[in-house]
Design brief:
The structure is a homodimer. In chain A, the strands form four sheets. A seven-stranded mixed sheet of chain A has the order 3-8-9-15-12-11-10. The first copy, chain A, has a three-stranded antiparallel sheet with strand order 4-6-5. In chain A, strands 7-13-14 form a three-stranded mixed sheet. In chain A, strand 1 and strand 2 form a beta hairpin. Chain A has twelve helices and 15 strands. Chain A is of the alpha+beta class and about 300 residues long. The interface between A and B is large, with 78 and 78 residues.
């Protein structure tokens, strides 16, 4: 059943479909009925858990796990709703008052057309959980975060390497400009070493967020010129031109300004983040090393992660 | 910061708020800015992972992990959208064609008001992933499933024991009437034993789905009379009158009819499920045994789970 079912899910490219079919046939995945999503087997999830453990940083306890939703107001303040409105998923529901006033049966007549925004959106980027926690504050020292959860992007296509619902592990630093930039570079190096230790052939690319549309060429080229974003890129399937497994970003004072975060004696806070695409890394490992984990390099757990891995 | 931040999140009852504040202050949780949700610390997540391992059934490999969204059409066919429309969360987004036609900048002017249903909803119940996989088929033997993921219910209140976004581990059997009922009873006994082995004081209650509104008294009383639903109930905080940690349900032929699933030689398939509320069980364990896991009974992993735990 499983392999045949995959064909009911529209997938972007023929190669993706073959790759997904193959993953299903050998037991890494189960066909999902939701376009742009995959259900993962216990074996795949074990690898995700091992990755979470190896990604734990000795400086910060292993990740805080956030639910898949967050306030729209926080996404708006971060500037996401303005820049990437086309990728945002909003949770709409029947207004409680409508349900109460009309009684459930009558309201059901209107169905989903009567739904209204709840003020909650699916998480577009993990680090958006962080800045609101420090909003309108002056901090006295750098703040570090290590978090994980599901992200959602309302992608137009359904590529295996660009799922709509996927998990991210992310570290964030809020600090002075110098500290944030230095941390971004150090984290990028460490991430590259970690992925190469797992036997992955990654190349480093100076990147721009792929979502910038035709009206945002300036933002795109500015991001490239200023070397704000670097991606560690590898292949998820044979004909894959390259998919980012991790992304290291220096945001300058973008979020510090948006959330009014200052550092004592240093003005507006700067920030940087390092994000790992967990499903993408596992897919790259499978592509590189095959289906038998006994043939893979070990995925080692750090001391921190052994205390608190997920 | 953390303990104080909790007060910005509206919570249903004063006792819940105290309980959540306490969980945050001792490191089990981190204040979330989304009403009705909690962000969990690495220590809490480790306990969730251990629970997943102990809940693995030797008969079926450990859970398939589904993304937090599913097709609206499947929820409609299951009857959820009709019965519990008030609890359903729909993913609305900017229609791709609108974004393409108007250009992103113009469309952004309309903001979230221009969003329309995407055909995808947040998962209201894990087992809804299962029936569509067998829809319009005749199966020759009983089908078992073991799955996990995030559920969402658009709750009106924000109680600690009734979160909007929470994780469920669920086993499902699709089989003949006799087999489904016998399995439900056996699973209920096993679940009760397992929770008691973890040192939890659980009582078994004949229950009805709590969502039936005033217009649905008949459904509610029929469910109670026919003993279709049993809950294993315990306390999550001192004044908690009782919260269901697990629920064992016999659906009769409800889903077999809705999804046109037949069993060879036995007509329409019947089904049953056993669901565990993962956060609730951890909260009950903390309430019963305190904050130091060294004082808890061991949470043992099964042979199956050691091969494929998440």
């Amino acid at each position: 059943m499983s392999a045949r079912q995959a064909s009911t899910v529209p997938v972007g490219l023929a190669d993706d479909l073959n790759a997904l079919d193959r993953l299903i046939s050998v037991g890494w995945a189960v066909a999902s009925r939701t376009a742009g999503t995959v259900a993962w087997s216990a074996a795949f999830e074990q690898t995700i858990a091992d990755l979470q453990a190896t990604l734990s940083d000795d400086q910060v306890p292993a990740p805080v796990w956030y639910p898949p939703i967050m306030p729209l107001a926080d996404a708006e303040r971060a500037g996401y709703a303005e820049s990437f409105l086309n990728l945002l998923g909003s949770v709409h529901a029947l207004p409680h008052q409508v349900a109460a006033d009309l009684g459930l049966r009558s309201a059901a007549g209107g169905g989903i057309d009567a739904f209204a925004p709840t003020g909650v959106v699916l998480i577009p980027a993990m680090c958006y959980h962080v800045y609101p926690q420090l909003a309108d504050q002056t901090i006295t020292e750098a703040a570090r975060f290590d978090l994980s959860g599901y992200c959602y992007r309302n992608e137009r296509t359904n590529e295996l390497g660009r799922l709509r619902a996927y998990r991210v592990r992310e570290r964030v630093l809020i600090a002075t400009a110098d500290a944030a930039l230095a941390w971004r570079d150090e984290q990028l190096s460490r991430a590259r070493r970690l992925l190469r230790d797992l036997g992955l052939q990654v190349r480093t690319e100076n990147a721009a967020d792929p979502f910038f549309g035709p009206g945002q060429r300036l933002m795109r080229s500015a991001q490239l010129e200023q070397k704000l974003k670097f991606e560690l890129v590898s292949r998820l399937y044979d004909s894959d031109p390259g998919t980012a497994l991790a992304s290291a970003n220096y945001h300058k004072d973008h979020f510090g300004l948006a959330f009014d975060i200052a550092i004592e004696g240093a003005g507006t806070a700067h920030s940087a983040c390092l994000g790992f695409g967990l499903e993408r890394i596992v897919l790259a490992l499978i592509h590189e090393h095959g289906d038998d984990r006994r043939n893979w390099p070990q995925i080692p757990a750090t001391a921190t992660s052994r205390r608190g891995q997920i």
